[in-house]
């Protein structure tokens, strides 16, 4: 691009050429220029993420009246419940209405939670949306996230003192967030796994180790944690699986229904398994323990749902693992679909209030505008130049002028 500019300016007088070069130099030291398409694409992606995270939550009504919501966006108010006070979580609507000017920690989503806003944990605040609440919510579960601390390192996110680039991954059992380098194993690429169970939760739910050799995504173990600054020595997971493991895998996958977290979640899990899959898998375990595990899409449907196993899940308080609709993906898909259904197209709303002639005229004008604007902007893209405010203003002035000339030439006939 610089070569083309230099060639173009070669015919200019010396002084003007130098000025042009100085201006080019000044522009090159400024922030990188992004195109309108990039801005729109980024904005669309941000809107999509917001719809996914917040779409299943009501931004106007406190969720407390709904009981322990299966999954919702939650926040913790550092202003009302700072470290040293009892932890508390508030719903999306209360974060807007009751804590709008406070310092909040975004907790993403939590399962089976009742909004605490205004209860006894808040000494000087009453909920504006729903003041009639119980003094406490004993079924709620809390962790250090409610104080803005995450992972086994108990650090904030983002951490101003941490210069190591790393992603945060949420455990689906305890719902804490962990640095990838603190999971005891190198996480697979983000697209290769669907959910993660941290090391502590694997120790608390040892039955998952029986499923891990067949269902979990292969990882690379760490001998030296990256957090200590040492060089990571990696060993690949052993690929050998004896005939007992293979036979158990065949029993596990045989006649399994194909379900999806994004599908209709009204279907109930049927306890039709004639034998216990878990017992069939309790053979030689060749997977190294002491690390987090990563699980693919649809792995929950492979868990045994016999009476004994369901009792075990209940005792360990992880019955939600048999619920495909408990997943964050199911929540996000529901939120996105609900939001898309509620979104209205302003153009279609306008058209619905017009007669047929007006509709045709508006559609024609819209198509003309779209075509001319596309052609106009393509010139800038082809030349690699930046579209300025005055360029857009000039386009619309010329477009209106052309529209008036076309209108003046039109002849109307009365039938």
UniProtKB/TrEMBL annotation:
GO cellular component: cytoplasm
Catalysed reaction, written as an equation: S-ubiquitinyl-[E2 ubiquitin-conjugating enzyme]-L-cysteine + [acceptor protein]-L-lysine = [E2 ubiquitin-conjugating enzyme]-L-cysteine + N(6)-ubiquitinyl-[acceptor protein]-L-lysine
EC id: 2.3.2.27
Residue ranges of every copy of the UBR-type domain listed in the record: 60-132
Domain of life, source organism: Eukaryota
Function: E3 ubiquitin-protein ligase which is a component of the N-end rule pathway. Recognizes and binds to proteins bearing specific N-terminal residues that are destabilizing according to the N-end rule, leading to their ubiquitination and subsequent degradation.
Protein name: Putative E3 ubiquitin-protein ligase UBR7
Taxonomic source organism: Salvator merianae
């Amino acid at each position: 691009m610089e070569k083309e500019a230099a060639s173009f300016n070669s015919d200019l007088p010396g002084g003007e050429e130098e000025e042009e070069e100085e201006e080019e130099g000044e522009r090159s030291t400024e922030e990188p220029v992004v195109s309108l398409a990039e801005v729109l694409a980024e904005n669309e992606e941000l809107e999509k993420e917001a719809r996914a995270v917040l779409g299943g939550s009501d931004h106007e009504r406190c969720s407390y009246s709904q009981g322990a919501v299966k999954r919702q966006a939650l926040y913790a108010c550092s202003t009302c419940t700072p470290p040293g006070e009892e932890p508390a979580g508030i719903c999306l609507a209360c974060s807007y209405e009751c804590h709008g000017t406070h310092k909040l920690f975004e907790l993403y989503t939590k399962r089976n939670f009742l909004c605490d806003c205004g209860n006894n944990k808040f000494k000087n605040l009453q909920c504006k949306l729903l003041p009639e609440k119980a003094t406490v919510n004993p079924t709620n579960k809390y962790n250090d996230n409610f104080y803005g601390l995450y992972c086994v390192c108990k650090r904030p996110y983002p951490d101003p003192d941490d210069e190591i680039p790393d992603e945060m991954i949420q455990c689906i059992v305890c719902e804490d967030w962990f640095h990838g380098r603190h999971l005891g194993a190198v996480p697979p690429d983000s697209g290769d796994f669907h959910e993660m169970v941290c090391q502590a939760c694997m120790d608390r739910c040892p039955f998952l180790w029986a499923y891990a050799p067949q269902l979990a995504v292969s990882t690379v173990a760490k001998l030296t944690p990256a957090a200590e600054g040492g060089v990571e020595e990696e060993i690949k997971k052993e690929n050998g699986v004896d005939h007992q493991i293979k036979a158990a895998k065949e029993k596990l996958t045989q006649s399994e229904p194909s379900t999806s977290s994004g599908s209709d979640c009204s279907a109930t899990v049927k306890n039709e398994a004639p034998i216990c899959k878990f017992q069939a898998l309790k053979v030689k375990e060749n997977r190294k323990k002491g690390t987090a595990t990563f699980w693919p899409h649809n792995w929950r449907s492979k868990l045994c749902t016999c009476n004994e196993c369901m009792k075990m899940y209940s005792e360990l308080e992880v019955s939600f693992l048999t619920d495909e609709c408990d997943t964050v993906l199911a929540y996000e898909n529901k939120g996105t679909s609900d939001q898309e259904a509620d979104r209205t197209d302003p153009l279609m709303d306008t058209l619905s209030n017009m007669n047929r002639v007006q509709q045709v005229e508006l559609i024609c004008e819209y198509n003309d505008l779209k075509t001319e604007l596309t052609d106009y902007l393509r010139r800038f893209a082809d030349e690699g130049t930046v579209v300025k405010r005055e360029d857009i203003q000039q386009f619309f002035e010329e477009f209106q002028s052309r529209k008036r000339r076309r209108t003046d030439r039109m002849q109307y006939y009365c039938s």
